[in-house]
Please model this.
Amino acid sequence: MVFDQLISNFKLGIDYALEQLINGINIGGIYALIAVGYTMVYGIIELINFAHGEIYMLGAYLAFTFYVMLKLPFPVAVLLSIFSCMLLGIFLEFIAYRPLRNAPRLAALITAIGASLFLQNLALIIWGGIPKSFPELTLPDYFQSPIITIYGSASISLLQYNIFFITVFLMLGLHLLITRTKIGTAMRACAQDKTTASLMGINVNRVITFTFAVGSSLGAVAGILAGLYYNIIKHTIGYVAGVKAFAAAVLGGIGNVPGAMLGGFVLGIAETFGAGYISSPYRDGIAYAVMILVIVFRPSGILGRKQSVKV
Model:
């Protein structure tokens, strides 16, 4: 009798752990999409774009506006939201960051924080402070119903499957863009040395603008996926997710795109396991504790490389 109870508890424990792992992978994929935007911009112009979290927030709000308020088909609403956030990212780079390209880093950092606060308060003025419910695309029972059973009661819903597929597809596409295309080669050249890249005929300003456009597009997708996953959006979600995504970028190695992807998944899994096994209010603290440990024992990040500066 005791042995049967132990077996039953062991199976329940595996079910619970698998459920937390599935949730962590989904949340981590969203963090990874945001973190990539941080790390790409930092890799080229060494700027922490703190307004990137607000791009994520606006991606969710714009999709909500186009789909719920304007009654557009959901695919159209998603494309319009991504395109709008892409234009906003380009606008921010052109108006706020480009004039400070040669200014001290502190000036650009303060500008990024100011842009973040401006966009957050702009969303508060437009949509108000009351959280909005992001409606599901199909019947709720079907949208949340399990389509793949992994073990016991641990299963993957249609929503979780779509989030995982979309995040992996986009990150794979970004990797191919950076490593297999001409513009990707130009991005890597600018990350190595912008002056030399310009002497080789690369339009550095165009590459930086393209980087902001790609990062903002991925941030918008992350915002839409988070809106569907949590089924709620508000004007402060950009700050919270932005800080966590920045932590994921640092965790993986700031400036390293694969590292940002890995850091996002590690942070998401650590957060969900901490919330599941310790306490939900401590989920943020546990995620940051993991980041601090990595920084203490490996300051360059998981996939980052130590760089020596010649004098």
Strands lie at 146-151, 154-157.
